[in-house]
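Forgive a beginner's question, but might I ask you for the amino acids of a protein and the tokens describing how it folds?
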Amino acid sequence: MSLNRLTTRTAPEELDGVRTPLRGRDAEMAFIEERLDALGRGEGGIVRVEGPAGIGRSRILAEAAASARRRGTRVFEGAADPDEQFVPLGPLLEGVLSGEEPLSGAQRLRDLAATPGQRFWLLQELGDRLREAARNGPLLVVLDDLQWCDDLTLLTFHTLAAGLLSHPILWLVAVRAGGVPSGVRTTLDRIRQAGAHGLVLGALGDRAIARITEDVLGAPPDPDVLHLAHRAEGLPQLLVELLGSLREEAVTIENGTARLSAGPPAPRELPSVVRRLDQLSDEARELVQTAAALGGTVTVARLAELLGRSSAALITAVRESLDADLLAESGDRLAFRHDLIREAVEAGLPLPLRQALSRQAAGLPPGRAPAAATEAGRAAPGDTAEADRLRTEAAELAGTAPGTAAERSLKALELTPADAPERPRVVAETIPLLWQTGRAAQACELGATALAAGGLGPEDEALIRLALARLAVQFDFSEAVRQARAGAALPGISLTARGRLLAMLAVGLSMSGEHAAAEQVAAQAWEAAAAAGDRTAEASLTTVRSAVSFHRMDLAEAFRQAERSAALADALGVSTSLWVPEALWHALLSNTTGRTAEALAAAEEGIRITREQGRTAATRMWLMTRTRILLETGRLSDARADAEAASPATDEPGPGNLADVTLRYVMLRVALHTGDRHTAEAYAAEARRMRSDDAPVVRHFGTWMLALMADHEGRPDRAMAELDPVMTSVAADRPAYAGLIDPADAPVLVRMALRAGRHERAVQAVAMAEKRAVLNPDLPFLAATAAHARGLLDNDLAPLVRAVRLYEDCPRVLARASALEDAGRKLAATRTPEAVPYFESALALYVRAGAERDVARVRRRLRAAGVRQRPSTTGLSDAWPELTAAELRVVRLVARGLTNQQAAEHLSLSPHTVSSHLRRAFTKLDVTSRAELTRLAKHRDNGE
């Protein structure tokens, strides 16, 4: 290292060379300022700043140095480097001999440093120069990353710092918390004995995280962005780098708020992680990358197997990765210091390599020699031992690598003769693995073939029917009920099998909307599960209990049971769950009761985890769930994109009931809000099919969709005729909200009924909404929907205004906009000027949601109120007020030269969706070509 070189270090809160304001360190900086005040009075001292990697130690030192310079204090700054510990005294000399005001006699100090045997005289000379400089004014000596300092630097530092305490010299040093070399520990002990002050940095608080997020993104974050920011766990460096990696494409500004453009973004490389990886040896880098592909914690022995080396050969590589703050010790295993670090390492791997590492990891269970993976290829049908080995491996891998587990199970099936007594069990084991990895049609055919072949014993048939019932939950609620009921009726089956089949039957009935029957079957299933001690059945039955409580409007109990169910399923592991995953119900429950941010966070976490695990079926179920949540939050373009991404394949078994009550329902609602008549008519046709489905809940969804369509077409009488059978059905199986899909639909139904002259139906809807709110006083969203419905029924302004106020704290954009519009409509009849602010607020929310049909309607109301000029509304950004978040993402990619196909791949959308967004953008922006769009983007985004 040249002693003339000044190390340039990127402060943790620095992004693109621009430093964000320091947040959340007021107490620490106040202490530093006190020490600088004392320094100005001639008092020296030592301050040790300590904390983990990425906590902001370097930033505190930089802020202290800047403050000292503003006071006129002379500052020397040095920093150690893990790659240059071979330069004796390098960090300290770097600080005092570089910069704007190096110590006098710099050349002599350099000569002494370069001459062997002169270290004693170098120490004396350096002390003399510091004393001389301190006589002319106070000094601040900053030394960063003490843990990387060489032994001579450590000796010189604590000797000079302790020996010069009587001089106006403040020594400010930073050191990593946790394990440090013994020489560093000795130095820390000595400066502590000399009276050093300690400053320990902890994780940032919620307020600081929110402020930094706003600093980086340029606008206050919404709950989704803030939830993502909290993944950094209060570490400023990771927080700023995470946000910086998302700023350009994954986050947009809508109505002055930073929002995620298209759900949770994929993991990305982070600069600090890239720098640390680059500093590693090839062996250590390979070790870290392999550990990242494995995920979670890992033993050294496991890494050695995968890398084809002995554990002893990895000693140096492991030590390097620990010293680089990439990995940490976790008992007898290694783990990444932070999930974001692991994701960033994995994101830096080319996709083929990442997939190869994952396959290699999944195909080599701990303790098995690499050659074992090839044994199956040499095995012949009838090789019972090899089939048993493959079944064992499949069971071990089911929870973490279901794709590999499915292949193992299929191979075991190939090796098992058709007449072998164990074959039905292998079939039952293979079906859920195929389903979980997106091969439902193959799984269904496998089970149907086994049943059709006949000759099965009761227990074997029961297990196959249980597997088929689990599969059918996503596609055909009634088929799930049929298979579970047939299996449970088989004579002589084990108590465990009967309990699980009854539990699956209760789940199927509950999802079908047959609530009374579900409760009765659940009671029998509880007895069987308790007798068998089966916690797996208990997890699913607890979900049924929650659904029953929801149907009875006891939402506190519904939440309590849902949380217990999710916890049980998580503890048991995904491969044993009867309904994968139980947490879906908790998210849907949260969304339906107004806890939308919580629901969205759960859905995004579910999508992330299931994608990592390769559980395709569960990922699609989470995507379907998220479409409902995005619809309710007013993110219409994102809801539509999610719905298209999770659309059922043409070869899937059954009608796709889960898609009916999520994707198809969402697509119709989005089409109605956006004025997309063609799409609305297409999904109305689906609704007519749904209305004749065997499952009551699907019929109810189809009926409500057709009622909405009829009302949209100006036929409220037809809409009410559609709803009459549902609203007069047997109370035990009537939907919990009197035929509605969501509590916020109560005002919609009241409007519809009043327009049709069906006052009694409006009264029924209001009574149900008010009962629900009274029974659950802790949920303001329910109170808001009840007040909104009551205000419409009574044509009373007071409850409408109350609804507006109650909606303020709930992220239900469309429900709030509707209440504002209705309040404005009531005011416009007699107090027109007072109506205008309500209409303008409603308009801003509709614009933010991309609800173009609602926007046009409210603008007509404003014109009728005498507002001739279009009100100012904040769109996604000042430069693009016309576009929704999804449209702007597509526009920016196309303006960069990407084709529709490339943009679709970049955004994980279908080309059809990209074309749809682009077509809408062309219309709104009044452009007719890509070249024209590119010129407009250059002008707006760059101010040219």
Notes: The mean pLDDT is 83.
